[in-house]
Amino acid sequence: MFTFVTQYILMDIPLLKQLFKICKEETLYGRYIHSAHINPLLKKHNKTFKIQPIGHSVLGETILSIIIGSGPKRILMWSQMHGNESTTTKAVFDVLNVFNHANDFSEAVLKECTITIIPILNPDGAVAYTRLNANNVDLNRDAQNLSQPESRVLRECFNSFKPHFCFNLHGQRTIFSAGKTNNPATVSFLSPAQDARCTVTDNRQVAMSIIKYMNRMLQFEIPNQVGLYDDAYNANCVGDAFQSLNVPTVLFEAGHYKNDYNREEVRRLMFQSLIVAVDAIASNKIKGKSYEEYAAIPLNEKLFYDIIIKNVTYKNEIMDIAIQYHERLIENKLHFIPIIEKIEKLDKFYAHKTLEANKNEVLTLNDQQVSIGDEIDFVNISNVKFSLNIE
């Protein structure tokens, strides 16, 4: 199917792109992904990998793990801890397609590594398309109390598998910039804090080394669009908790790429990041001592709106209008609802799409003045109709 050896893949961007093209799981698309979508894929992969139930959600949905490889280096990764963060779930199944075919790369990795994947940790939240579980609890704030069945499933898997590395797979909103720039944080990472002082421990440096290789690759693809997530210590967060247990843990955050609200381009970038991370571990390239290169990645800032309408005459003043899409599940289909968030001067903010009002009023199609909180698909600027919907 394809032939290459593991030591050549880290920075071979054309090879990574070709690998994604070949192995993309075409049955998964968009943002609304839940157990019914992946069950047929589990049946397919059950012929090659060990797939087993490891517990149940609040509403009794089965939580499954997928175990691949037989090597001594153990990697644990989990996706959709937050039910509405599905981009990495798609990427995980793309990765599984790589390892489900005989090739030099998969054989080398699976000889060196054993990988346990929980594709959907929060199946109830995935069906409802919510961050929380069915008890309205954020599982990523339940690492100490372990009050929820899904939290206990993850901890029991962690305790029994005894991983050497953990990949905590998430998605982030469109509001983030990579530093104080007009660059979206398309992909973000974090080596979580291990204590309240955010000490740069040897354990954290191992995670930083993994991130270093992924960032090097991504700078060729999305220069200046990689960010670092906030590393303020919170023992209730799973990443911080596992890092504190001396297991190098990497947080992956799938963010926004231009006009990619279905997160299909970001899916590819997350796929490539996972391949590079696993390859670096399998190839014994993770040596630690990567703090300086890691620290050079800019911190995430909340500087983006989905749309800004500039230079609007509003109540006899010149203002800007900020619009954010709210994701809403309606009849099992995800809709992006444009909602006016702010009407003020927004000189320090950026937008994924900008409209220029040229000091005209911005009105509804009924010629009414717009207001904060309006759900609005179209606006009228100087008798010209503009759509606020995703193109």
From TrEMBL:
GO terms for molecular function: metallocarboxypeptidase activity; zinc ion binding. It comes from the Bacteria. Gene3D superfamilies: Zn peptidases (3.40.630.10). Residues 25-391 form the Peptidase M14 domain. GO terms for biological process: proteolysis. The active site is at residue 391. Belongs to the peptidase M14 family. This is DUF2817 domain-containing protein. It comes from Lacinutrix neustonica. The lineage of its organism: Bacteria, Pseudomonadati, Bacteroidota, Flavobacteriia, Flavobacteriales.
